[in-house]
## 1
Amino acid sequence: MRRHPHKSGRYPNHERWLISYADFITLLFALFVLLFASAQVDRRKIGQLAMAIQAAFQQLGAFPGASIKGPVEPAVPFVIAALQAHNSAPQHNKIGQATADDTNDADLTSLQDELQKTLAREIQIHEVALHRENEGLVISLREFGFFDSGSTTLKPGALPVLDRIAALLAIRTCNLRIEGHTDNVPIHNAEVASNWELSTARATDMVRLMIVRYRFAPERLSAAGYAQYHPLANNATGEGRALNRRVDLVILK
């Protein structure tokens, strides 16, 4: 039987180009999808980086102002929300902390005024000194007014002064750190073997007095001995060494 001419392989199929065209369109579509996805990732990364940098600078106070603002990508709402919360929360904390600091400073200033009046005689003869530090108010009890040289036992005559100090501190809730300090002259006697032991023993003896005599809550108190390593004055002179031999009552903020 003779074949029909149009079914023989001698004539080309003019519709085959559609296959190549479809393949090309599919590959082009895939390329644009990949480019779009890559662009979205880059935008998210850049946005996250910008948010993180802004949050860090605002936390440090370099950019004062409100919370982070900007377009929120649907794919990263949690990241942006977290950064906004992290940025805004410290602002409230800073305000509250500033208010608390102002209150503490006012209380310490009031206490310092009361102590200066109560201890006016002892301050005048340099048995006691008051000064402010970052941590709080410091009452320095000089050795010659409160301890015999090289002794860890408080002089009985010093108790009236401590009674007045304790009366002002007992009505407050501030914590106290009691620090023992010495000069740089080595010590070795029957009671203590080093300046470390002398400074620590004086501090802990003062803590015991605060608890037993004045009924201070033990959790308000702490003791530290620094030997000669936190001097107030030069140890090269007798006057400087006398200033360095002391017990400090640090009234903490």
## 2
Amino acid sequence: MPVPQKTIALKNSQDPPMISVVMATYNGAQYLDAQLTSILAQSYSNFEVVIVDDASIDETVAIVNKYMQLHANISLYCNNTNLGYIKTFEKGMSLATGAFIALSDQDDIWQLNKLAVLFDAMNGYELVYSNSLLVDENGNSTGKKMSDIKNQINYTDCLMYTIGAWAPGHAMLFKKELADRCMPFPAMVTHDFWLGFVAACRGEVHYVNLPLVDYRQHASNAIGANTHSYQKSKSTTAEKLKKARARMQLLFEKCPEYLPQKKVLEQINESYQNYSFKNNLHRMLVFFRYRNLILAYKKKSALMKLLFCLKTFFKIDA
């Protein structure tokens, strides 16, 4: 694929605010050209591209260096050892100089107006995100969008993040100050989940119902659209329970003291500690009371939500 001609992000007083596109790469040579081309062709005029490579052993760094020779707004930082995608994204966000940050996977393709549309949608929000089109490894549409799998919605309450969410990082734009408030990023939840939860503790995570990213699905995805099977197939039951308890403790501790949701998260957190009859009953009742918030991102009928709450009497959701 041809490399676009040299571009320089303008930085005078007439420009819109700087957006830092933060990309984490790891052995991404196969798809990296297409993604960098789509980013550099963005209609938004003032952006930088901060790339952190996580000790790749393929041609990823060479490809980035090729683009850096032609584009003054690209910077590259290389990890000496493999840190994993969460810490690699965290490093990129810490190095970003823009007032806003857009996260980028190495293998997607952005619509050319992605940054412009998301920036226009900010409108006082701390974090916005869009829908995405699912494409196969060759970039061909699968006929599905992210919203076909789970509800993509405005997250208006941090309780909507209690057991999960569906606001993916590759479709986000957020204020740099949110990233600063999230650091250090915990290892037990994904970076985009953490960004969304922390933002929802302050205000609305706003959804833009437009597919602004071609989200490529292939065997080497770090997560992929089917996050359920990826995350649940790697751990034993004991490990999943330990992680679920740690996650709930994390959410409870991070939730600000002044929010009424703090008490709800405290109750759920306490009920996660063991399977006593008292805890099981209390957990089920709390989930039942707040089921429309906690299960908002799941495509469940009213009946299925009730059954889910009943299930929590016997099982800690991992």
## 3
Amino acid sequence: MLEKRLSESNDGIVEVLNMSRGHSPTIHSFHLRSDVPRFKPDGVVLEIELINDVSDEARVHTSGQDEDGLPLQIHRHRYLLGWDGHILSPLSVFGSSIERTKLYAKLSRWYGRLRYKMNPNPIFEPDSNKTFYHLYPDRFLLTQPALDDGFERIFRTVSGIQRYLERQGIRFLLVIIPSRHVFTREQYTETSTAIVARAERRAEELEIPYVSMTAALAERGGAELFMDFCHPTGDGNEVIADVLEPVLVGW
């Protein structure tokens, strides 16, 4: 949508590439440092959604730091891997039930569910007013300190990405997307709204240029613009394009 709009408004060809791979800003930062030298973009737009990304970041473990404060090595990330390197979040229905990867996935899931049952995490109890993306067996790992660390890791990484791009004269914009819960007026609305406001304050404190999509999505349909708790529909993406277009035209 943006590529078509920007090409028309600039009376020429503007190329927009979706370079997102991985599941959180820290993982994106590794791809970014590979992509930028190859594609030499004029600007980079990075989107975050806190209910999804905070719990993703909470499970990332890295080491080392470059001159921009970005990590140098990944030791652990969001999803468990089997012996063959396949991600274990979806459990395959094919093959023998005792093949190594499937057995490992079953044992890992059993262990996680048992740990949660023995020591329930209040964040994921039915009467909790908070919610974060999880895989059920990893709920016992997503404690409040881990989630707080995930939030701070997001902004350390985003700030490092901004420094990395600014050194090369490349513009940067952070896009903050609210979760669907912000618009549903139910048990998760208050805390989901609060974490968006917290992200906006953190971006301002770190002087990160950003746009928040909450008001625009609220005006155009709110919860109806999401296909699930955090991913916008086609109409939702149309709203996002409407907000981003004048910013990028200004660039």
## 4
Amino acid sequence: MVFQRVSRLASIPLGLIFLVIGMTLAQPARATMLLRDAGIEQSLTQLAAPVLRAAGLSPGRVRILVVDESSLNAFVLDHNAIYLHYGLILKLETPAQLQAVIAHEAAHITNGHLARRLANMQNARTAAGLGMALAVAAAAGGADGGAAAGIAFGTQSAALRGFLAHTRAEESAADQTAARVLRAAGVSPTGLLEVHRLFRGQEALSVARQDPYMRSHPLSRDRVRAAEAFVASMKKDIPERIEDRYWFARARGKLSAFIRAPSWTMRRMKEEQFKDVRLMREAIMWHRQSDTTRALRAIEAALAIRPKDAFYWDLKGEILMKGLRTGAAVSAYRMASQLAPTEAQILGGLGRALLASDQPKAALEALEASRRRDFRDARVLRDMSIAYARTNRIGMASVVTAERYALQGRLADAGIHAKRAVGLLPRGSAAWRRAEDVLIASERNAKRR
């Protein structure tokens, strides 16, 4: 598992709160950290698949990504991904609870809320801007600073209330859609009720202490009542599926083994219901303590139970790489890539191992295949730049370095490498156009400062 800094806009409701209280009228892109791991994302995809299909979405199109935040939050920014804070995944206790969160976020996509939120945000921005203009006029006319600030804050607060009124209506609608989706997916809507109860009492906290999830959602007591009514309307509850329990245990098990201290994992491993998941957690525990021998023994025992599990082979490759056994790591990643030939992160791992084994041409083949499937992986771009440099393709090394910096929100650095790439690559080529796009974005960003 790796932490990756990725530039994205802050979640829309929270971003607008900062906008309308006058901190800024043009928030820059905010960098966040994603926790990228093929096994965790695969487990979440398996858990989400029945829910996404019931919502009319493709599990192959909508990614489930983990954000490096300990708070209890989830959000969508577009139609291609649902973002879950790792704190929320570790806090929830049943697969139905996590599936309820996914169903709620999927409902925002299917209900068309994303497009409407952009329009509502623009209206709120206009109102907030008007408030600032009135405050400037009042100050120019001789009003004291307190009065001018009052005009600005009053107008901006009204803009915030108007925007949140829209988003809260959408959240209520998303809850209703999520409940129906869960039932259609064969998942108990009781999980939705339990998630709402988790947030009970948040309204009594100050904004600084509230989880971000609460700031644009209806009051939890209203959500609890609505969920209780829906659950009560069902003739009987839906039993939990063993496969849902397995993938939930696997996602949380791997995430906690990397996030929590190894001593925490050691104390709780024996509670794990599934033997292969317990062995996976043990392997990660020893891996984090640089005990390659014990880590390999544990992951090989897990592979004895699931010999065709690409993601256990992927973990074995990661353990071998840390132990500097690059030749064996290449073999493990090759097996993983044969079992999951379209999994971008596994292909990236294979490329990384080949690069460490001084096979840059073979590494490039795997890394380019990885990048075609997932543009979000900054590690792949870093490794590609090294492989291109080792094969004396300096222009290509520069363009992928520029793209890596742009992905991370470092547009000034991206511009430096994009300018170099533009000078080195054949004018009009596909790679030259990619470099030109990054250079233009960098220059525009510099003009806004």
